[in-house]
Amino acid sequence: MGRALARAAADAGDRVLATARRPEALTELRECHPDTVETCALDVRDPDACAAAVQVAVDRFGGVDVLVNNAGCGTLGAVEELTDDEIEAQLQTLLLGPWRMTRLVLPLMRAQGSGHLLMVSSTTGRSAMPGLGAYVASKFALEGMTETLALETAGTGIRVTLLEAGVFATNYGASLADAATRLPAYRPVVDPIGALIRGEVPAGFTLSEPEEFADTVLALVNDAAQPPLRLPLGAGAWGILTEAADRDRAAMAELAVKWGVALPAR
What we know:
The protein is of the alpha/beta class. It has two domains: 2-235, Rossmann fold (3-Layer(aba) Sandwich); 237-266. The chain contains nine helices and eight strands. The strands form three sheets. Strands 3-5-6-8 form a four-stranded parallel β-sheet, with helices on both faces. Strands 1-2 form a two-stranded parallel ribbon. Helix 5 (133-152) links the parallel strand 5 and strand 6. Helix 4 (84-112) packs parallel to helix 5 (133-152). This is Short-chain dehydrogenase/reductase. InterPro entries: NAD(P)-bd_dom_sf, Sc_DH/Rdtase_CS, SDR_fam, SDR_oxidoreductase. One of its GO terms (molecular function) is oxidoreductase activity. Pfam families: adh_short.
């Protein structure tokens, strides 16, 4: 998804700093757009690498107008199965990395009075799935951090958007790691999720392509004067999040009746 976005932005004439843990994978993109594309190594778990990447953007392009936090990873395992190290690895990439990059570019954006911060979240940021506890916790936390940031930057010219991704045709499933410890008790509920993510797509279900993600992000950045805080995109996203909101409303109504609470009029 990040590669598709970088390519689409470059093709549209934007100046792009594309980063990856292995920047050689971006050589073709840079060679196709030598005047407008720069690449550099970046592991968002490394504070020094994060600072260096932002400095590359400043040195080459004069600053940062748009930051897309898109680094991702996953570990399949029930809450009881995951170790502290496995949980920390997820949080480092999915929460602390985006937080770190955001903290680094905010002074630049505040100084210029504009900017757009895009956090690639997921439907799991509002609707949990078994077997992905660390991933889900990271996305829930990312959404909370981003909503807080939007309140803090209101009126500054800095725009903030959560991209709540559905199911895209990427290599995420192939890179999904298994927890070191797997308990038989959780196999019936966790293993089907792993199979689904690793490619056993239900009949009739169509995956979204990364190019769709790229087109949506470019349209959002270029055309939306008042971009939404949250934008579902990709296969299944709107349905999953609508169902989650409906469940929450129904649960609140049921609790209100049980505990004798008068809900505010809608």
